[in-house]
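Weekly structure sync, notes
Attendees: PL (lead), two postdocs, one rotation student
Agenda item 3: pending single-chain targets
PL asked that the sequence for the first pending target be pasted directly into the notes so everyone works from the same version. It is reproduced below exactly as submitted, 271 residues in total.
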Amino acid sequence: LPEMIYGNMPLEGGFLKLSELEKDNIINTYPQAQKFIRPTIGGDEFLKSIKRWCIWIEDEDLKSALEIPPIAQRVQGVRDFRTNGGEVARTLVERSHQFRYRHTAKNQMMIVPCTSSENRDYIQCGFFSSEYISMNSVQVILDPELWVFGVLSSKMHMIWVKAVAGRLESRIRYSNRICYNTFPCPDFNDENKEVLTELSIAILSARERHLNTTVGNLYRKGAMPSDLLSAHLALDTYFESLYKTNPLKNDDEILETLLKQYVQMTGNKNA
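Predicted structure, written out during the meeting:
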């Protein structure tokens, strides 16, 4: 599987983040500011279809960005926040026009919310264009192949996550190290990846037929639209066949199969 990382941590006191109203007010007065404003995607934005934005300035554009008064005021706000902040914040004072971390995709990225409801049968993950800036409330895979979506969208992956993930109250805390890096995948050949890609497209296509419903509501337990559920079940049937020839009877048998695969994957050293 490709590397999964945390989304971008701002550490800027909220000065570089914008609501849609704040974004519109800046652009309506200073149209040239459009160049320095990007949509953000975090856990709430993805699951609840909330629109938020951020100021995103490259070093070579700093001079022209600071000629826009509301942007200059916000950069100064970050500088003051970091100057009076902790040890890490103070190391970023000279970069007060930027988030602490700056990971972006070349074409697209796939995200997984760090926190999501335990009352769902599938992990909710999604694709976003490189225009979007990920926040640290999601885990991110930069420029992945589409078949990876099928792996994370499978019921087997969710069963593994529920068994190993941390918790925030009762909600799932998805971690790249604990949930993703440990997931015992079989070795995928080109044919497997092609089928997983087709099944992933079917799930994404089903979602697109319900654009007026948030992703969080689409995956409510017992309330998934029939076409989306059918697409996931088709993925589950195929994905399970990559582990065992005979159908797996229940969640306990799925977890037992995954644990055996994990022991084999780690060579008994860390199991």
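Discussion points:
- The chain has a mean pLDDT of 95.
- The CA atoms of residues 210 and 218 lie 8 Å apart.
Action: rotation student to compare against the earlier draft before next sync.
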